[in-house]
Amino acid sequence: xxxxxIFTTVPDKETGKKIVKNLLVERLVSCCQIIGPFESQYWWxxxxxxxxEYLIFIKAKKQNYKKIEKKIKEIHPYQVPEIISFEISxxxxxxxxxxxxx
Length: 102
Known about the structure:
The chain contains three helices and four strands. With 102 residues, the chain is of the alpha+beta class.
C-alpha cells in the first residue's frame, strides 16, 4: 500500500479546521496538521499579492487522492486552491502500520 502527503493552504484557521474535520469524518485521511499563520507572496491576476495563510499537512492512502482533492475543492474558498501531493518514499514501520489502519 502506498501513502501520500498532501499540502494545501487556506486563508484562515477555521477553514482549515472545516476541511480537516470533513476529511477525517469521511475517513479519507489518517492525520492532518494545521500550521500557521505565515505570510505568502504570490502572483495573482497580473499582480504580486501577499497575505497570511495556514498550511495543512495531510497524510493518506494514495488511493484516496481524488476523493480528498474533490472534498478540499468543495469546501475551499480559493478559486485555485493549492493542492499538492507527494508519495511518501520512506516511512517507519510503526507509522506505516498506523496509516494502514485508517
